[in-house]
Amino acid sequence: MTPRGATVLIVEDERELADLYADYLRDSYDVDVAYSGEEAIEMVTDAYDVVLLDRRMPVVSGNEVLAAIEERDIDCRVAMVTAVNPDFDIIDLGIDDYLVKPVTRQEVRDTVDRLLTIQEYNERVQELTAKKLKRNVLEVEQPAGNLQNSEEFARLTDEIEVLEREVEHIAADLDAEDLDRSL
Predict the structure, then answer these.
(1) pTM, to two decimals
(2) Beta carbons within 10 angstroms of residue 171's beta carbon
(3) Residues in the chain with pLDDT values less than 50
(4) How many domains would you assign to the chain?
(5) 13 and 100: one domain?
């Protein structure tokens, strides 16, 4: 599941590497590049769906960029792509994935695809939950006859069924991707 029009910000101080990652993704996504932490802090907005973030950069680190994303309450998925081996400190980082360099084209693409699938899953679950809550309120507050005769309620019920199937399908895709990744 790779939504067209998804936007990716690559934050990497090694220009050649940043441009290489951008080349890996440009055929499928809208890609911007920040070549420093300072530049990333200026660029990062809700316009980005995914941020690939180098952890160790001079002056402004990836951790500081991540803090700026969190302070601004920017809704995006973040993957660290770094030469820094992970330690237990990553548990408290607000990241969705952690890749240790060197990384392949396929690893970069798979990571972005997976993060976008997670985003899609979260959005669908949120939509499903809101519709189920509305259905539940109506079931409690309206007589059964009113519900049976309501086109709006029938439409809501149909929408819930469709969303449940979509959520199950996306969850199965995520499970399959996680299994593939662990092999």
Answers:
(1) 0.83
(2) 14
(3) 1-2, 179, 182-183
(4) 2
(5) yes
